[in-house]
Amino acid sequence: MKEIQCDVAVIGAGTAGMTAYRTAKRSGKRVLMIESGPYGTMCARVGCMPSKLLIAAADAAHHARHTAPFGVHVDGAIRIDGKEVMDRVRRERDRFVGFVVEDVNGFDEKDKIRGHARFLSEHVLQVDEHTRITAGSVIVATGSTPVRPKELEPLGALLISNEDVFDWTDLPRSVLVVGTGVIGLELGQALARLGVNVSIINRSQSLAGLSDPTVREAGRAIFSQELDIRADVTVLGSEVVNGKARVHLKVDGQERVEDYDYVLGAAGRRPQLDDLGLENTPAQWDDKGRVVYDMTSLQIKGTSIYLAGDVNQRAPILHEAADDGRLAALQALSEGQDEPMARRARMAVVFSDPQVAVVGTPFKSLPQGAVTGSVNFGNQGRARVMLVNRGLLHVYADQDGAFLGAEMVGPQAEHIAHLLAWSLQMGLTLDQMLAMPFYHPVLEEGLRTALRQAQSALRGQ
């Protein structure tokens, strides 16, 4: 067995792992990166990029069907070629993955170890049966894996995740989506717009990460106009019948049986820590079975091991994963002595139509005395011009007028979310935000309306 010593070992070559490797390598230390699967980040291979390719095709189909209100009539039926749709998704996905693989190919060959790493002790890793590594610190950046509800396990290959969708060569006729989070809503709506018979169910009232009940219900009302989306549904069991996925559901107190080509499990993701051997280290677990780590340093309590990226479940977003990788590497190099770096303002976007966004402090975490400003996009000028006038934005501020955060469902929420996140990171107040220029006519004028309402609420207290 080959024996190697290093200062920092990084397990996982995704966004967090690659950033950790680069950061540690720049210090001149001996760094190893271990990967058991194919190179190419989750974002490029099965996440951000291929999902947006599918959504882009779905948006094209949707827009083509809805030109008449503008007086523009498309003669003849809109034809969707599922094979062509998925061919472009796969080709462009492979192109994005190729860029990542090129980056990894540029890493020093002697630093790359292929195989499954497992802790023998806090500082000793074994990779398959060929290499034993002694490391000063270890950064675990193994990502996450889809949750597979036990009630759906009997479906076998008919139970899929987002990681399977992008390898399709054609579109199926029907899909049941289980989960109304980011993945469920994005892929469910995209498939429906591409002609797939889609139902989206959830065991609770949650929707796209929204905690503001007014915004959430506004979103539910909008999406229900287009989609078969049902809340408070219990999955009782499942089976394969005549090549179809048969699912037993409890809806409004009544049991129902429904058949689909596939069931897309989108009920969340869990840390990928399987067979990692953390039990052979001083790592500790809480009463919910989660590894105990410090969220400011990413260090597992009582160890020289760090959790970076989706594996720590702090914020499963690409730029956050990159920041995690850099932070973990800096902490590992300093043996936990460096001050943790400042983090960026929190922001999450769902690329549905309308889009959903949460920035900064969500409604559920607002301090006592916080005020809310609101705008309904139903009558917002630019939104009406473009016929995208649906949605609701709530902004939050504290009693001193400092901007705290926002939740919204609405047109081009991805862009408004960025403006709000930048404002939050700069520590702006409502007065300072309203002193910024707002062109006319733009969707951002809706944001100004919400900010003004929050400002008025403060002055009225």
TrEMBL record:
UniProt cross-references to SUPFAM superfamilies, sorted A to Z: FAD/NAD(P)-binding domain, FAD/NAD-linked reductases, dimerisation (C-terminal) domain
Key words of the record: FAD, Flavoprotein, Oxidoreductase
Keyword tRNA-binding: no
Residue ranges occupied by any Pyridine nucleotide-disulphide oxidoreductase dimerisation domain in the UniProt entry: 348-450
EC assignment: 1.8.1.4
Ranges in coiled-coil conformation: none
Domain FAD/NAD(P)-binding: residue ranges: 7-323
PANTHER family associated with the record: MERCURIC REDUCTASE, PYRIDINE NUCLEOTIDE-DISULFIDE OXIDOREDUCTASE RCLA-RELATED
UniProt similarity note: Belongs to the class-I pyridine nucleotide-disulfide oxidoreductase family.
NCBIfam families: PRK06292.1-1
Protein's recorded name: Dihydrolipoyl dehydrogenase
